[in-house]
Write a structure and sequence with these properties.
The structure is a single chain. The protein has 562 residues and is of the alpha+beta class. The chain folds into three domains: 17-124 and 214-345 and 416-436, Aminopeptidase (3-Layer(aba) Sandwich); 137-211 and 348-411, no CATH class; 442-558, Immunoglobulins (Immunoglobulin-like, Sandwich). The chain has 13 helices and 28 strands. The structure holds zinc ion (ZN). Zinc ion binds at residues 76, 79, 263. Zinc ion is lined by residues 76, 79, 263.
Length: 562
């Protein structure tokens, strides 16, 4: 069979929606339908495809019959690095399979959603403007500034305007930067807005910025709270169609044992809980998720942080308690150990650790960090990328009059440099392999068909889980009804009579590594019977299997329905 080369994934610039689409199509086409299925979860609000790559070696069964691992990226619009990291894993899984470095795709499946927020990402890729997940621009509010490329240079930067009440002053150490005004500050003082236009402005100073914002990582059903208790929550759990599509997909996959999301805050391996404390969860689950997160830390060098402790510049503040967060949904509603990698920001690239960022006690200390970032950037090769800082340039704004447009490019600040991202993506891929190595593994052992007397046979087999995770994955998973226990269905061969009462068995959940059940059936087998029976095993997170057992006890694997 002709095998075309897998497309290269360049770590040179952030990808537009068209480029992401081009890459997933090229990857699927090069790898072929035996390894990759390209489909979509649904459509975004603006009608873009929510690309889904289903990756498994179909010669050993469909994805739905194997333990599965889901990766999603870019739920937050500006966190474009997540798309690269997710696509890196998709490509690397296929490359490793092709080159014989791994058998993983024969045994399990990956669902990869590189860009769950294509609309928000497209806004950021195209303009460098700021949006969390979505901004409601359809119902514009009076006296509110909406981002727009006013000066037509293709970018949304910042606008500063001198004003006696301005809360910002020039940084005495690096006048490119603005710092928070203090009693020692000297004029000029500035007010600062994103580049844009004020909707239905009455000419007053009270200008709000942007309309209602949405954070799709606060739109999940566990412990969801409306605004103002939780900023960005949305109207109700899963009010955002992209999140609803992802939730339905997750709930429709009983074979799913792990979920990983890619984000780009200061680098960290995030684990549950996202509200409360470890003490609210099962102790064994906390120990396991911490151990798994440490595997991520060992490979990336990132610190392990429970979501509630992910404090950016908030020393002395209470835990953040993010309501309606994906982590709590993943643990409490799916029963899985879910993780998020914060892939880092330009601050980390400049040599400032996440611990240092978290340890900043006030705005002045944080401003010192930004000074370090800018001076580090000045020392980088300027020929390879667009500048981080755009000089403040006078502009006659149609509403505000004289302003200056410039400042830092948000698109750069929101993630690590792309060359570092390649290294980071390779490290997080190694974490995924280590996490995947813990999957439940269905094993059928010791199949015997013993002659008892005349035509009477005793068929025995052992059904085991030889993976590290139990089939219920976590203690929480055992208590949820979503993760199904192991079931066995017995069908007698032609002319074979089953004497034992039970044709189907519910084995319950199988623990990790050392748990098995021996099944036994007595059969009356006519002379010359071709095969004794078929045995179907549905082991939930450990996948599904269908076996045909011959009169001499030999076992043949049958295809499993998708
Ligand atoms: Zn994020």
């Amino acid at each position: 069979m002709h095998r075309s080369a897998l497309p290269e994934l360049p770590f040179e610039h952030f990808l537009s929606f068209a480029e992401v689409t081009g890459f997933v199509e090229a990857l699927a086409s090069a790898a072929g339908p035996d390894l990759v299925e390209l489909s979509r979860l649904g459509l975004s609000r603006e009608g873009r495809a929510l690309h889904l790559l289903t990756i498994t070696d179909r010669s050993t069964g469909p994805a739905s019959a194997k333990p599965a691992y889901l990766i999603h990226g870019n739920i937050h619009a500006a966190e474009l690095s997540g798309t690269h990291a997710a696509l890196y894993t998709a490509r690397k899984l296929l490359a490793d399979h092709r080159e014989g470095r791994s058998d993983l795709l024969r045994e399990m499946a990956f669902y990869i959603i590189p860009r769950i927020n294509p609309d928000g990402a497209e806004f950021v890729v195209g303009t460098s403007g700021s949006v969390r997940s979505r901004t409601d621009r359809s119902r514009r509010v009076a006296n509110t500034l909406y981002q727009e490329d006013v000066d037509g240079n293709g970018l949304i930067l910042s606008m500063r305007q001198e004003h006696p009440d301005g809360p910002y002053a020039l940084d005495p150490e690096d006048p490119r930067l603005l710092v928070q005004r203090t009693v020692e500050s000297r004029p000029p003082f500035y007010r600062v807005y994103p580049e844009g236009r004020v909707h239905a402005w009455d000419g007053s100073d009270a200008i709000a910025v942007e309309g209602r914002g949405f954070d799709w990582n606060r739109n999940w059903s566990f412990d969801w709270r409306p605004e103002p208790e939780q900023w960005g929550a949305g109207d109700f759990p899963f009010s955002e169609p992209e999140m609803r599509a992802l939730a339905e997909f997750l709930h429709g996959r009983p074979n799913l044992f792990a979920v990983l999301g890619y984000h780009t805050g200061p680098n960290a391996v995030l684990r549950p809980p996202s509200t409360g404390s470890d003490g609210d969860l099962d102790g064994g689950d906390v120990a396991m998720m911490h151990e798994l997160a440490e595997m991520g830390s060992a490979r990336t060098g990132f610190p392990v942080v429970p979501v509630v402790k992910y404090h950016v510049n908030r020393v002395g503040q209470k835990d953040i308690n993010l309501r309606g967060h994906f982590h709590n949904f993943g643990y409490h509603h799916l029963g899985l150990f879910v993780f998020e990698f914060e892939l880092g920001t330009l601050v980390n690239s400049a040599g400032v650790t996440t611990e240092e960022v978290f340890a900043t006690k006030n705005q002045q200390e944080y401003e010192a960090v930004m000074r370090r970032v800018l001076s580090w950037w000045d020392r980088q090769d300027p020929s390879r990328r667009d500048p981080l800082f755009h000089p403040w340039t006078p502009y006659e704004h149609p509403q505000l009059g004289r302003v200056e447009i410039g400042g830092m490019l948000q698109r750069h600040l929101a993630g690590p440099t792309l060359s570092e991202l390649a290294t980071i993506s390779a490290a997080t891929y190694e974490f995924t392999l280590a996490h995947a190595a813990c999957r439940p593994v269905l094993s059928v052992e010791e199949v015997t068909a013993e002659v008892i007397e005349g035509p009477i046979r005793r068929l025995r087999l052992r059904v085991a889980n030889r993976g590290r995770f139990p089939t219920h994955i976590s203690a929480k998973g055992r208590s949820l009804r979503r993760l199904q226990p192991v079931r066995v269905e017995f069908t007698a061969g032609p002319g074979v009579e089953r004497l034992s009462r039970e044709g189907h068995s519910n084995l319950g959940h199988l623990g990790g590594l050392t748990d098995s059940r021996v099944l036994e059936w007595f059969l009356r087998v006519p002379e010359g019977a071709g095969w004794l029976c078929e045995v179907g095993i549905d082991a939930g997170t450990a996948g599904r299997r269908r076996l045909r057992i011959a009169a001499d006890g030999t076992v043949e694997a049958l295809p499993v329905a998708p």
